[in-house]
Write a structure and sequence with these properties.
The complex is a heterodimer of chains A (114) and B (116). Chain A is an all-beta fold. Chain A is 0% helix and 59% strand. Chain B is an all-beta fold and 116 residues long. Classes of the chains: A mainly beta (114), B mainly beta (116). Chains A and B meet through strand 4, strand 5, strand 9 and strand 10 of A and strand 5, strand 9 and strand 10 of B.
C-alpha cells in the first residue's frame, strides 16, 4: 500500500528566505505527483502537477522536482512571503485502476514571519 | 465561475443521527470524490464516482453512503454507524474518464462536521 511522508511537519522561516519542503513515497509505480496548498479551514488548491515521466515543474516562485526511482519530491519556494503561510500537501496517484485515488501525506505547515 | 459548492460549511450532529453533506459542481466533470481530513492527518478517500449511477468505496467507506443520480451532484450521508464522524469533509471532482484527465482535481471548501 502506498504511503506518503512529508518532512518537516512544520516550518517557520523569516520573510525572503528560500525553502524546501520534502515528500517521499514508498511505491515508485505512480502516475503523477501533485503539490497542493491548504489554508486553515479551507479546501485544497492545486499548485503543481508532475507527470511520472517529468523531472520538474515550475510556476512562478514555486519549483517542484520528482525523482521517481528514489520515491522523492521536493517543493522549492523562492523568496518566501507571509502570504505563503499555509499547509502544503503532497499527493501521488497510481496507475490504472489506482489512478482514481490520491494518496496524501500529512502535510507541512509553513509559517513565514514578516 | 465554475467550481464546487459544499454545504453546509458547519454541521452539528447528535449521536445516532444521519446527516447528509451536499456537493454540487458546475464544471461538467465526470468523476467526483469524497475525502475525510482529521487534524494532523492526510486526506483519506471515502467514496468516488466515475459516472452517474455508479460509485466505488475508498479506504474508509464504513459508516458512509453516497448517491450519484446527477452528474453535477454527489451527496454524502454520514450514518449513525460511523463511530467517529467528527472531521473535515472535502468533496472534489476531476474531468474525464481518461487516466490523464483524472489528475486535474478541483476541491470544494469543505464541511466541518461535529458530533454534539
Amino acid at each position: 500500500k502506498q504511503e506518503v511522508t512529508q518532512i518537516p511537519a512544520a516550518l517557520s522561516v523569516p520573510e525572503g528566505e528560500n525553502l524546501v519542503l520534502n515528500c517521499s513515497f514508498t511505491d515508485s509505480a505512480i502516475y503523477n505527483l501533485q503539490w497542493f496548498r491548504q489554508d486553515p479551514g479551507k479546501g485544497l488548491t492545486s499548485l503543481l502537477l508532475i507527470q511520472s515521466s517529468q523531472r520538474e515543474q515550475t510556476s512562478g516562485r514555486l519549483n517542484a522536482s520528482l525523482d521517481k526511482s528514489s520515491g522523492r519530491s521536493t517543493l522549492y519556494i523562492a523568496a518566501s512571503q507571509p502570504g505563503d503561510s499555509a499547509t502544503y500537501l503532497c499527493a501521488v496517484s497510481g496507475s490504472g485502476a489506482g489512478s482514481y485515488q490520491l494518496t496524501f501525506g500529512k502535510g507541512t505547515k509553513l509559517s513565514v514571519i514578516p | 465561475d465554475g467550481g464546487i459548492t459544499q454545504s453546509p460549511k458547519y454541521l452539528f450532529r447528535k449521536e445516532g443521527q444521519n446527516v447528509t453533506l451536499s456537493c454540487e459542481q458546475n464544471l461538467n466533470h465526470d468523476a467526483m470524490y469524497w475525502y475525510r481530513q482529521d487534524p494532523g492527518q492526510g486526506l483519506r478517500l471515502i467514496y468516488y464516482s466515475q459516472i452517474v449511477n455508479d460509485f466505488q468505496k475508498g479506504d474508509i467507506a464504513e459508516g458512509y453512503s453516497v448517491s450519484r443520480e446527477k452528474k453535477e451532484s454527489f451527496p454524502l450521508t454520514v450514518t449513525s454507524a460511523q463511530k467517529n464522524p467528527t472531521a473535515f469533509y472535502l468533496c472534489a471532482s476531476s474531468r474525464g474518464l481518461v487516466e490523464r484527465d483524472r489528475s486535474f482535481y478541483t476541491f470544494g471548501s469543505g464541511t466541518r462536521l461535529t458530533v454534539v
